[in-house]
Amino acid sequence: MLAVLDDISRFLSAPLWLTLACLLMMVTPPAQAATPRNVLVLYSHGRLLPANIECDRGLAEAFATRPDLAVVASAEFLDNPRFTGEAYERAFVTYLREKYAAHPPEVIIVAADEALDFMLRHRAALFAQVPIVHLAVSSTTLLSLSPLPPDVVGTPLAFEFVSAVEQALRWHPEADRLAIVTGAGPWDRVWEARLRDQSAGLPQGLAIDFLAGLPVVELQRRLRNLPAGSIVFTPGFFRDGGGREFVPRDATQLVAAASSAPVYGPFSTLIGTGIVGGRMASYDAMGRLGAQTAISLLDGASPASLDLPATMPAPLHVDWRQLQRWGISPRTVPPDAILHFREPTLWQGYRREVLSAGFVMLLQAGLIVALVLERRRRRRTAAALTQSEEHMRLAANAANLSTWVLDGGSLPAAGTGSASPQSGQGSGALLDFRSTLARVHPQDRDV
Description:
Layout lengths: L1 H11 L3 H12 L9 E7 L6 H15 L6 E7 L8 H14 L7 E5 L1 H10 L9 E4 L3 H7 L6 E3 L6 H11 L5 E6 L3 H13 L8 E6 L3 H9 L5 E4 L14 H11 L4 E2 L12 E3 L3 H16 L17 E4 H6 L12 E3 L5 H4 L1 H48 L3 E2 L10 E4 L11 E4 H6 L3 H4 L2
Parallel strand pairs: 1-2, 1-3, 3-4, 4-5, 6-7, 6-8, 8-9, 11-12
Antiparallel strand pairs: 10-11, 13-14, 14-15
């Protein structure tokens, strides 16, 4: 009992702030964690496709701007075109349904054409009432699937094939032949058909050759022997005519390395493979826009109320190194183009170092100028002093005067001047001060 009373006494004698803190801890309930908001992201192709990596980064960064929503985004991959067919799709539907049965998504994001087509066909068996946001889906595919359900929204992606070729012709006015490279897989055949259809909009008189579905060795041989005046366009391909599998970026790199003509493409992920460029939408931007659309739906907005762009912007992307390789003048690049791999100027890359070096050089120059001016001032002072002494000497000689210099208040040992004729000493001879002082009247010596 005494021990309990002692504990109470110590508690009551504690500082007031400590007592209040203890009371608040007893009466304040712990903060409740935000309820997770589940979002399912379904990609058409494999996990390591560069477009998927960029898109996923944009999604994650946009969701991170709303920590209050506590979005939990789960990514799944159809791995098209490597895995296709009815049996595969049935297995994938079962996988998704069972995996997310306990944590169903509130919004579904589909990336690229195949994912949207898959989700629309299997929506009833999966998540019938969940709104869908599409991104990186071509406007051509959206037209073929229209009319879409009211709760399926997104921003179309228009591939700027014709405008990219027209820009290439402005840079290569001598070009009169276009080689279009595609592959042999299902995705590659879709792109071949799309490019054949859009080729009707190209300038008249441009000869077009489709290098479609060739084995890589044969394709590279054809590219090395392209006729003069050629340009090349390729989206890359997943499979060549020999059955070899590729990622489109790697296939494009092989095309650009073998081609004797400049190469252009439709995807921003192809920049850096050796192509000159093209008009391309950013997959990172697509991911951000898709996430912002999903956030609006999670906030309670209706799909019909969303004000989305008519299409994704597709600015001109250019590899600076390829401009130099193919002799394209930088002055012909449109001012709104996005330049990649351009080495910064000395000022752009080392502004701080340039400013520091400039300050040091100015300081050194200022010190040098100050030293030169000080040296010149001292020379003028020394010359003036010499001239003054010479004038004094001449005046003293003319007046038959002698001069002495007092140093520290002591009497000088000797001086110079003109002696009297009776002294027998010539003008300018050293004179003894004491002997000279002895000839001065006693009343004048104290002065």
